[in-house]
Each structure stands twice: as C-alpha cells, then as structure tokens.
C-alpha cells in the first residue's frame, strides 16, 4: 500500500520560543486510521496543523506523493481535510448550506455545483434538515456533523480529526462514531479517548514532548503508556 | 444561551417577511430620507410616518411594544442633542430630533426583525457594498453569540467565587473578565482564519448569485415609495 502521509524530521518552534515538535517521523498508509495520543501540550495538534501547511516547520512532509511547498499548498489542502476541535471556529458562514459549500467554491466549483455537493454531503451526515439554519442555532453534535460535512465536501483523501468527541453526549458520540467508521478516507485522530481510538483506528502513536515516544497497536500503546482514565 | 429575540423574529412567515430583502432595504432608505428631510413644523407628517410603521409592524405580525421598546434605546443618544436644542429655545426642533431618531431606529429595527441577516447582507452585496464591510457585519453577528456565551460562563464563574463582602460590581474583576474575553476572541479569530485556510480560502469569498426579484416585490417598493413621498409632500 502507498503512504498518503510521509513526514521526516519535523521540528517546529512557536514564536514564544516553545519547542513544540522535536524531530517527528510519521507515515500513514491509504485507508489506514491512526490515533495520536499524548498529554496536553505534547505536540499532537501542532503536528496535525502541519499536515496541510497551516503551520510550517523544518523537515519534510509529503502528502499523497506531493511535497508540501508553496506551490502545492492548495492541492494539499484539498487532500487533507481538518476537522477542528472547536466546531465554532470551523462554522463561520451565515447558514449551514453556505458553510459546507465554502470549501467546494474555493476549489473552483460553480455555485450550483458547490451547492449540489454541499446538499449531498449534508444528507450523508444526517443534516439535510438544517440547510438554511445558522450554525449558532445548532447543538454541539449537529455542529460537529456540519463541520465534518464541510470537510467532506472538499472530497479529501485524508481526514484529520482533532478531539472529535469533545463536548458530545454519549448518544451523539455513538452516532458520530458510526458516521466516521463509514467514511473511506484515511484518518488521523487526535484524542485522549482510548475507547474512541479502539473503535476507530488500528494503530496508535504516542507523543511526548514534541517527539513520538512509541507507536503500535492501539491496545498495546494504551497499556504501555497507561493511557486510560481508570 | 437564549438567542437574540430579533433573530427569532426575523425568521417569521408574514407577507412582509416574504418580500425580497432588496425591496425592503430600498424602502427603508426611502423612509429614512423622507423622515430626515421632513421639516420640524410638519408634526402631522411624523404622526403619519408612525402610522405607516405601525401598519408595517402589524403586517409583519411583530409585537409593537417589543419593537418600540428596543427602538427607544436610541433615544438617550439623540435626547442629549434634543435637550441642548431645547435649552437653546427651539422646542420644536428638539421634538423633531427625538421623533426622527426614534422613527429611523424603529424602521431599521423593523427591517432586521423581518429579514434574516443572511438575506439583508446578500441584498447589500447585490448593491455592490464592499464585500469586506459585509463580511465584518456577518462575522461580528456570527461570533457575537459565541463571545456572549463565553462572557456569560465567565460571569457565572466569577459570581460563584465572589465572597459575601464584595460589592455587586467589582471593577477589577470586570476589567479582568473583559481582558480575558478580548484575548480569547483574538485566539478564536486566529482559529477561524486557520479553519478558513484549511478549506482552501485564498483571501476572497465567492459571492452567491442574487435571487429573482418578483413583481410583488416591485409593487411593495412602489407602495412604500408612494406612501413616503405622499406624506413628505402633502403633510
């Protein structure tokens, strides 16, 4: 199988001097799902923000064979869909339909095609009833679904999910898991939730102080790093 | 959090709600120009403008008291100037100043209470109002709810930790809350920009095509124009 993400020696220092990533090597195969574990501030979110060039550090990143550079940035952003932890940051357009159509319009689709694609994706995530609703009127679970729809509308090859179940109640979390399991894209899931990782991914990577401290089977990593609430 | 009442009102289903936002926006402009150019001595005209507004509020099936109460919020600002004018001996001008500001506020409020934000900002866009200005309006409105919720949660947290000895309004705590709110808003703005870039944003929004303008909308605007001009010229 071909690697869809290949990262070598990634280092990143924030402007305040914090060394967030300190030589990360990472790979992801097509269709594979991997969980990123690690304490708060260990570099997980900083790492995933590099995958579509939102942050630019030292080292090399290849997405679906394309090296991340200024001239490939837009192509790479259409291949890597990032679902942010806080849906309120992701849903910025006045209505659900406009928000989901935002990405396809930026890809160069005509307004009619972008709207059609947005409608299709919203139906897929079970939000077809909310097309004209403003995002701030939605529940946390609905916001998350619309945020995922906004990313899926760009037809990405890789989905990056940053703490996808934060703020969700158990039934909503369950529904979201069912939805995510049905998506064919390769997935990088940033999470503290070992149960979520077991349900959604096959491999786990453990971040510690900006480095990958271990990787392997999810259960093995959970046990090795004592990564459970009880 | 309870969302703004006006936002709820704007999603009604009256015949005024059904009119094209461009027609309503044009009617508002005509009304504002007519009111602002009416001489102070034409008190009957101001009464007629008020009657026109009451009719429109009735048409929109909105609560007149709720709207009037909110429109009265502009009065403290205009009252300052009205009082100065009154002290200088021109009571009629002072009265007209208060009337004009109240009627204008009421008319603008009626527009936003009978038209969803997305619709009237689209109307502005179709009139080639600078896109940046429209975006600022939309973003402020969108994130007003998020920031208000955040402020409310922080206020509750502050109330929970307030000792019995402290005064109701602790200035230093309020200042701290505002500072943190500002810093968080800044961080959020950064997050939103990242989310936009992640979905291919290149610094330019793709505008949506305007909806068709119907004959009933043209008729509505003509009626408003006729009403305003009639009052302005005849009374």
Could you characterize the architecture of this molecule?
The complex is a heterodimer of chains A (230) and B (235). With 230 residues, chain A is an alpha/beta fold. Chain A has helices at 44-50, 73-79, 87-90, 96-106, 111-124, 140-152, 170-181, 194-200, 218-224, and strands spanning 3-13, 19-29, 33-38, 58-63, 66-67, 80-83, 158-162, 186-190, 203-208, 211-217. In chain A, the strands form two sheets. In chain A, strands 6-7-8-3-9-10 form a six-stranded mixed beta sheet, with helices on both faces. Chain A has a four-stranded antiparallel beta sheet with strand order 2-1-4-5, with helices on one face. The longest helix of chain A has 14 residues, at 111-124. Chain A is globular, with a radius of gyration of 17 Å. Chain B is mainly alpha-helical and 235 residues long. The longest helix of chain B is centred in the middle third of the chain and has 30 residues, at 131-160. Chain B starts with a helix and ends with a helix. The mean pLDDT of chain B is 86. Chain A binds chain B through residues 49, 52, 54, 74, 77-78, 80-82, 84, 86, 88-90, 92-95, 98, 102-103, 105-107, 111, 114, 134-137, 150-151, 154, and chain B through 3, 7, 117-118, 121, 138-139, 142-143, 145-146, 188, 191-192, 194-202, 206, 208-209.
Compile the SSE list and pairings:
The complex is a heterodimer of chains A (230) and B (235).
Chain A: E1 3-13, E2 19-29, E3 33-38, H1 44-50, E4 58-63, E5 66-67, H2 73-79, E6 80-83, H3 87-90, H4 96-106, H5 111-124, H6 140-152, E7 158-162, H7 170-181, E8 186-190, H8 194-200, E9 203-208, E10 211-217, H9 218-224
Parallel strand pairs in A: 3-8, 3-9, 6-7, 7-8
Antiparallel strand pairs in A: 1-2, 1-4, 4-5, 9-10
Helix pairs in contact in A: 4-5, 4-6, 5-6
Chain B: H1 5-9, H2 15-18, H3 21-36, H4 43-59, H5 64-71, H6 75-87, H7 91-114, H8 117-126, H9 131-160, H10 171-198, H11 215-234
Helix pairs in contact in B: 3-7, 3-11, 4-7, 4-11, 5-7, 6-7, 8-9, 9-10
């Amino acid at each position: 199988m071909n690697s869809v993400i290949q990262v070598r020696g990634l280092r990143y220092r924030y402007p305040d001097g914090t060394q967030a990533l300190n030589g990360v090597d990472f790979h992801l195969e097509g269709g594979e799902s991997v969980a990123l574990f690690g304490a708060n501030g260990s570099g997980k979110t900083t790492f995933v923000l590099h995958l579509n060039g939102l942050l630019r550090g030292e080292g090399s990143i290849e997405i679906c064979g394309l090296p991340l550079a200024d001239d490939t940035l837009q192509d790479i952003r259409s291949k890597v869909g990032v679902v942010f932890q806080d849906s309120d940051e992701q849903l910025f357009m006045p209505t659900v339909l406009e928000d989901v159509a935002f990405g396809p319009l930026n890809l160069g689709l005509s307004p009619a095609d972008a709207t059609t694609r947005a409608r299709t994706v919203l139906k897929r995530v079970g939000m077809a009833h909310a097309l004209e609703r403003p995002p701030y009127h939605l529940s946390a679970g609905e916001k998350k679904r619309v945020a995922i729809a906004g990313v899926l509308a760009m037809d990405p090859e890789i989905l990056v999910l940053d703490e996808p179940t934060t703020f969700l109640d158990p039934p909503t979390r369950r529904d979201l898991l069912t939805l995510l399991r049905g998506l064919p894209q390769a997935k990088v899931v940033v999470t503290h939730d070992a149960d979520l990782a077991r349900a959604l991914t096959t491999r786990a990577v453990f971040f510690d102080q900006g480095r990958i401290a271990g990787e392997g089977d999810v259960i093995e990593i959970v046990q090795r790093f004592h990564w459970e609430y009880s | 959090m309870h969302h703004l009442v006006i936002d709820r009102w704007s999603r009604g289903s009256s015949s005024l709600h059904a009119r094209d936002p461009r027609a309503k926006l044009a009617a508002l402009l005509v009304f504002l120009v007519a009111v602002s150019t009416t001489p102070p001595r034409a008190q009957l005209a101001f009464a007629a403008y008020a009657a026109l507004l009451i009719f429109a509020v009735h048409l929109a099936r909105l609560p007149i008291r709720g709207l009037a109460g909110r429109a009265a919020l502009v009065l403290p600002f205009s009252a300052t100037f009205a009082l100065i004018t009154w002290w200088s001996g021109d009571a009629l001008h002072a009265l007209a100043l208060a009337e004009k500001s109240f009627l204008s506020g009421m008319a603008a409020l009626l527009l936003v209470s009978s038209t969803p934000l997305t619709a009237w900002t689209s109307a502005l866009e179709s009139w080639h109002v600078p896109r940046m200005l429209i975006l600022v309006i939309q973003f402020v409105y969108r994130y007003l709810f998020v920031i208000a919720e955040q402020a409310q949660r922080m206020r509750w947290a502050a109330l929970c930790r307030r000792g019995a000895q402290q005064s109701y309004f602790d200035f230093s705590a309020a200042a701290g809350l505002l500072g943190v709110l500002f810093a968080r808003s800044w961080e959020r703005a950064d997050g939103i920009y990242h989310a936009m870039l992640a979905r291919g944003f290149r610094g330019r929004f793709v505008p949506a095509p305007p909806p068709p303008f119907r004959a009933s909308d043209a008729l509505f605007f003509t009626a408003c124009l006729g009403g305003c001009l009639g009052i302005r010229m005849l009374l």
